[in-house]
Amino acid sequence: ALPDPALMGRDNPAVLGLARGRGVRLNLFEVGLALGNNAYSLSDYTRYNGAVITEADEDEILSRVAGDGWTFTGEARALGPGLAIGPVAVQARGVGIGGGRIPEDVLNLIFDGNAVDETIDFSNADGAGWAGLEVGVGIGFGLDQWFQNLVGRGETTGGVQVRYLQGLYYAGVERSEGALVTRADTLYGTGRLDLLTATGGTGYAVDLGILHHRGRWNYGLRATGLLGSISWRDETERTVYEVEGGTLDIFNDDDTDDDIVSSTDTTYAIGGFKSPVPTRLGLGVAHERGPWVFAGDAEMTVRGRMVGEDPIRLSLGVERSVLG
After folding, report:
1. More confident residue, 166 or 51
2. pTM (predicted TM-score)
3. Dihedral (CA of 84, 85, 89, 91) sign
4. Axis crossing angle, helix 104-112 with helix 55-63, rounded to the nearest 10
């Protein structure tokens, strides 16, 4: 939420402007991973994994994904070498972000099968994700002369970070449609999925922040990913997956009269395209008590929200310093 200046200001670049954070600081390596979904917890996985699923269990599992289906997200960040000298910092890191949606009808089909006079809709399937590298250059600066009359005593700083983005891989659903129809004597359906992929692209993003430090309290505002996008230009392709099944007459013993289910996939080159970098607004507060830091944070994604990502995320954290 509100990182110590030693963390290079990657969340709120205004920490680079704090007087106590000046000097030379080195960051070697750090890894972070966040996974989420709209329905199930880790305890649910532990409960059902390897167990015999009863009808009551199925009802409970499916009731949690009614409406929107099962959505899931993942975000991974690996910080590489970083160096801060005074109020200026340079930080490299790898990043991967993605999300997806499995329609409710598909989950019902998996658990309950298809019933007579039922249409199973696949058109709500969605998902996208990308991975890449980035290098950020940030600078912090004092704002006391502008905010002293407003906030009184304490130290107020601002910060700016510009990130260069090197996209390594992108995959995203552009179009999905299809249905499986079951009648008393027939079964038929069609489906289509268009998938965009690319293996290289570049882009930029800007992060802004403001921080007020007073005694043992820190308050911060930040806007990350402003104007951010990646232009994908290398090996940009569209792959179209199609499945078509004619009428299958359940009561006809002559298989030659039944239409055969066929599937095709076609891949062809396309022009470049862009994918947005999430733009997020954040508000954080932290309290220092000896070697302990207690922090709370609220973050809202206002642009480029991934499939399945909550628009607002709340978090609480505790940190203890073991060195100094």
Report:
1. 166
2. 0.83
3. negative
4. 180
